[in-house]
Specification:
Structural class: alpha/beta
Oligomer: single chain
Helix content: 55-70%
Strand order of the largest sheet: 7-1-4-3-2-6-5-8
Low-confidence stretches: none
Distance between the termini: 203 Å
Order of helices and strands: HEEEEEEEEHHHHHHH
Strand content: 15-25%
Shape: elongated
Radius of gyration: 58 Å
Length: 302
């Protein structure tokens, strides 16, 4: 009887130990903790792309929490993140869903931010999905047709280019052009060789001409400078003369000088006309007297 009781006690202890061990493993797998050492915040994503509850939350690549819960709204998904309390996040913190490894696992990566204000964990924050292999393949499949067409066009272009280079006509034209070019080079060399002395004389004469020109400029530098200065002075005086003439003409038109008054004074012109008329009459009388009896002078002297 005692053996049976001992056996039952052992079995009971093993069962209790198994239950405790099971609960501990279950709590560990579900990230359950009796002590409240986490903080929670909600992040909204347009797509979580396979993110699951219990997936890793990392801060700058270091594991610091888990995804506690994921809720679906009409057009988005809201992930409740459980992060260790000793982590401080700031207002400009960023949240991203990205690949955990090549096997397709997901995680939430958080950059704490650089702001001076601490983040408010009670409001809903906005996150983004950075893409994975599946999304990259989906994007690639969208341009698959264009890539195939492009490769085909490149292949056709290379084929046409090869046909052009390998065609007999093309090779013949290339050989002909090279032959003509060689002939042209030989002709040029022959011309230069036959006229080598003439070209040398031309170059020497050009050098002498340049030297004489430089000597002439050096010897007459003072005279040339003086001539240029005199020319500048003459131009300045001419400009001043033209200005004075224009000013005089303006004064004449405005009757501000005697010439203007004489030209534009109607009474003066009238007097001149009368004087000329009287002078003309006097000359006429004198001519008549000379032609007849001479000039009669009736004068009382004293």
């Amino acid at each position: 009887m005692n053996k049976e009781k001992k056996t039952e006690v052992k079995v009971g202890l093993m069962v209790i130990l198994g239950i405790v061990l099971f609960l501990w493993i279950l709590g560990w797998s579900k990230n359950f903790s009796l002590s409240e050492k986490y903080q929670y915040l909600n992040v909204e994503f347009n797509s979580v792309a396979g993110l699951s509850e219990g997936d890793v939350v990392s801060i700058n690549g270091v594991k610091k929490g888990y995804v506690d819960e994921i809720k679906l709204t009409r057009n988005t998904a809201v992930a409740k993140l459980r992060i260790e309390k000793d982590i401080t996040l700031y207002e400009d913190a960023s949240f991203s869903v990205m690949m955990l490894d090549l096997m397709g696992g997901k995680k939430v990566e958080i950059h704490p931010g650089n702001s001076e204000k601490i983040i408010d964990v009670n409001i809903l924050h906005k996150g983004q999905f950075l893409g994975d292999i599946a999304s990259a393949m989906a994007a690639l499949s969208g341009v698959q047709t264009d890539i195939i067409v492009l490769i085909k066009e490149v292949k056709d272009a290379v084929t046409n280019l090869n046909n052009s280079f390998l065609s007999e006509n093309f090779v013949t034209e290339i050989r002909k052009n090279l032959k003509d070019l060689n002939s042209l080079v030989n002709t040029a060399n022959s011309v230069i060789k036959n006229n080598e002395s003439g070209i040398s004389n031309l170059i020497n004469n050009s050098n002498k001409l340049v030297s004489k020109g430089n000597d002439l400029l050096d010897k007459n530098e003072t005279d040339i400078t003086s001539s240029i200065s005199s020319l500048k002075e003459l131009l300045n005086k001419s400009k001043l003369l033209v200005t004075n003439i224009n000013q005089f003409a303006e004064e004449v038109r405005a009757q501000k000088n005697n010439v203007g008054k004489i030209i534009y004074d109607e009474q003066f012109l009238k007097d001149i006309k009368e004087t000329l008329l009287q002078t003309n009459q006097l000359i006429k009388i004198l001519l008549e007297q000379i032609q007849k009896d001479g000039i009669n002078v009736d004068a009382n002297i004293f």
